[in-house]
Design brief:
The chain is an all-alpha fold. It has three helices and no strands. Helices cover about 70% and strands about 0% of the residues.
């Protein structure tokens, strides 16, 4: 039995399918649809902000930390 991943299914949506999904969403959510979409948009913005902040924090931590010293240090004698 073949099963498709959700990501593969999303990639195969055409314009007609998107219109049908939009109509179904309109029927289900009705007048609340604008507030639902606004909430989804805010969630996406917060997620991206969290990713950006985490990336900046990791970058600062890497820049501020000293490189690990190896046990085998080589002395240079001129």
């Amino acid at each position: 039995m073949l099963t498709a991943s959700p990501v593969a299914l999303i990639g195969n949506l055409g314009p007609l399918e998107l219109v049908i999904i939009g109509i179904i969403a309109l029927l289900i959510f009705g007048p609340r649809l604008p507030s639902v979409m606004r909430s989804i948009g805010k969630g996406i913005v917060e997620f991206k902000k969290g990713l950006r902040d985490t990336g900046e924090e990791v970058k600062r931590e890497i820049e501020s930390s000293e490189p690990p010293s190896s046990g085998n240090q080589i002395e240079h004698k001129p």
